[in-house]
Amino acid sequence: MSSSSVKWYVYVPGNKITRHNSFVEIGDDCKKILRRKQKVEVPKIVGTSNLSAHQFNSDWSPKPEMHDRRYKKIYKAVSQGKHIDYFSRGGKFYPRLLKIGNEYYVEGDGNHRVSVAHVLGIKEMTADLIEIVCP
Prior knowledge:
Elements: E1 7-12, E2 17-19, E3 23-27, E4 31-41, E5 45-49, H1 69-79, E6 96-100, E7 103-106, H2 111-120, E8 124-133
Parallel strand pairs: 1-3, 1-5, 5-7, 6-8
Antiparallel strand pairs: 2-3, 4-8, 6-7
């Protein structure tokens, strides 16, 4: 288990994407294209919003200090055969991911499901995508 967090992203002034070791900067001139209900390879989900990055190790396992009932509930149910796509708050919503090049970042809802998918070795899940395209 790694002690560093998953990568995160931040919007910044400018019109390009800049990659750093632990985060990605997305220029505010970049175009966002919504693509609903897409199949995504779980290993390509490499990061999350900066608000949640501190909860997970770089391999997406939860950090020891994260004692989260929601995570444990999802982990237990998926371990017992329930499909990863069936979890959300208040209805069936897919995780929302940003697609930046060939990498994906959780945008809002979905961090727990993505973490469980990584930890259990699930290869693919369904998500709503926001593809980032820069000039």
